[in-house]
Amino acid sequence: MLEEPAPQELVMTLLGAYVSPREGSAVWSGGLVDLLVGQGFSEGAARIALTRLVNRDLLARVKDGRLVHYTLTSRTVSLLADGDRRIFSLGRHDRPAGEWTVLWHTIPETHRSARERLVRRLRFLGFGSVQDGTWLAPHDREHEVAALLAELDVTAFAGMMLGRPAESLDVRAFAGRAWDLDALAARYEAFVAEFGRHSSATTDETAFRVRTRMVHLFRQFPSLDPELPPALVPPPPHRSRAVALFDDLYATLAEPAQRHFDEVTRP
């Protein structure tokens, strides 16, 4: 039920979880490759992933003699900060049944890259797709969306409204067309089943492997869980346990996992 990470996504998880400070820090390329190989990827796939992240302006390559290091771009620093806010707030507070956000867009093919980035960011903000070009979020996301449209230079192709769902309709049935709530519940259950077994780690490498996989899988939940107001739709039954497990293991395994990351990425 839980998806295996793609190499580019896993690099972003590593950078977010183990690189501090994020601005100005350089990570040895060979160490990143070794870490990805340790997660089951080939060396070739690891190097291709790093190159593609450079091409996407998510990493910058820096040479130091014969060694190559990677630094985080300003775009990556911003994305990781946004990710932290979503990851460490998810499921911690009940959200009131306030205004919802509806966004529609007709972004032309000439702006395809911007459209694809918009879709990824909308999902991360908790939006679900009602139909092609029409998105719904169960919270007021006006400021975040307006800033995103301006950043991508597609404001002219979009419209946005705020409002409340009609009480005369079954909100859960309607929400089920925008978000796969049954699959979300199953993912939380699978997360609890996998990481409920891990209360400690015998080695630094084991701590790193468990914590990295856990962080990567938990990072997916903000793009899947709209955090629907509990007064309208009950929360996924295993979400609270998943959040508690994440908070506990994230802290418990932090020191040994960081030691392993630092040891491998030291040239």
UniProtKB/TrEMBL annotation:
Residue ranges constituting the Transcriptional repressor PaaX-like central Cas2-like domain according to the UniProt record: 97-164
A Pfam short name: PaaX_M
InterPro entries under this entry? PaaX-like_central, PaaX-like_N, PaaX_C, PaaX_trns_reg, WH-like_DNA-bd_sf
Where does the record place the Transcriptional repressor PaaX-like N-terminal domain? 8-75
Domain of life, source organism = Bacteria
- Signal peptide segment: none
Q: Describe the location of the Transcriptional repressor PaaX-like C-terminal domain by residue ranges.
A: 179-262
Tell me what this protein is called: PaaX family transcriptional regulator C-terminal domain-containing protein
